[in-house]
Amino acid sequence: MKDVIVVGGGVIGLFCAVRLRKGGARVWLLDSGPEHPTYYTPIASAAAAGMLAPIAEAPSVHEMVALESFALWRSMQAGSEWADGVRFDGAVIVRPTQSDAAAFAANAARLGHKAAHLSGGEFRKRTGFRAKVDQALFVEAEGTADPLRVLTGLAMQAHALGVLRAYDTDASEVTATSVTTHDGRVLEADAVVLAPGAWASEKVMSAAPALKRIRPGKGMVAAVEIERPLGPNVRAGDFYVAQRRDDVVLGSTLEFDRFDRKVDRTKIAELHAAAERLLPGDLRLTDQAWAGIRPMSPDGWPMIGPSAEGVLLAAGHSRDGWLMAPITAEIITAYVFGNEIPATWAALSPERFEHP
Ligand SMILES: Cc1cc2nc3c(=O)[nH]c(=O)nc-3n(C[C@H](O)[C@H](O)[C@H](O)COP(=O)(O)OP(=O)(O)OC[C@H]3O[C@@H](n4cnc5c(N)ncnc54)[C@H](O)[C@@H]3O)c2cc1C
């Protein structure tokens, strides 16, 4: 039996721990934070909007892996501990001009997905908003995970499967086969997976220098009130609105190299003003807003696979960690068990950031 230590209990570490355990490994999951995160816990996974949005407006080298991850979300939902935290209601994409909308539709079609043009009336019907919006498209292949609900479900699943979880436990030193905790315990394993988000310490980074390429990307979202429950996500250029299980959020900002999680009300007001321009009177701000720190990689895609030093990295998920969590766990599991790695997965290797 393989022994694996996963460092980091955000969405990435939790998905990896559960998948590795299901694959037959004995798994330790260490996290320096508490067992039950809230929006105000300093991890990206809890603060996120949770949109599962695999289709972008432009082609990308990793787009097929993103679609693969989205398909995994769908196939894993039924019977899972987090099933009621995920919804697949598609998305309404709003673009400023007809040619921008056409470009999005063409890219979706190239990927085998339809992006159907919506008339003003259809936009209102789909969203429940009163605004008259042109250049809107509907794509079916999109969803939303309610972060706190799904994190709780994943933790329950990990517990039920027998993952050995240790919270309030900092991994202070790491090698390819061992972890030393802040209180001096040394754990040994066949493989160590690092999923530290934006929070790797200098010492942890020295075990896998590719982690040094990850920059913090502060992001804020606000809870909003709307008249009728929103079905699909609404994504415009400068804001989005997403209905989760228990609330609706307006997002989001991005500021590089900021680790503080102070909520800047001016920036929230700017976000709301952008939404007001398109959807006047449809969204009311509440007093709830929060910030999280995204782990931003240089190309916006995660690094998944062995570092030069032999530590497995599942890091740098940037703005798409929720979307990419299931496929990250598949890829990490394939590396741990020595299974075949398709070229599209190998392309996400940390190697691309190891040689500047
Ligand atoms: C405002 C906002 C909106 C977002 N919206 C979306 C979205 O709509 N869709 C989407 O797909 N993604 C979204 N994201 C991005 C997504 O949230 C992140 O990419 C993802 O959560 C990263 O997960 P993670 O597990 O790598 O990191 P984190 O969630 O930060 O978790 C890392 C964990 O590692 C632990 N850790 C770190 N170092 C150590 C150590 N040495 N020892 C022990 N534990 C350690 C930390 O305590 C933490 O619990 C958003 C992010 C933000 C902030």
TrEMBL record:
Protein's UniProt keywords contain Lipid metabolism: no
Keywords, ordered alphabetically: Oxidoreductase
InterPro entries found in the cross-reference section: FAD-dep_OxRdtase (IPR006076), FAD/NAD-bd_sf (IPR036188)
Gene Ontology molecular functions: oxidoreductase activity
Nucleotide-binding in keyword set: no
GO cellular component terms given for this protein: cytoplasm
Residues in FAD dependent oxidoreductase domain copies: 3-334
Record's protein name: FAD dependent oxidoreductase domain-containing protein
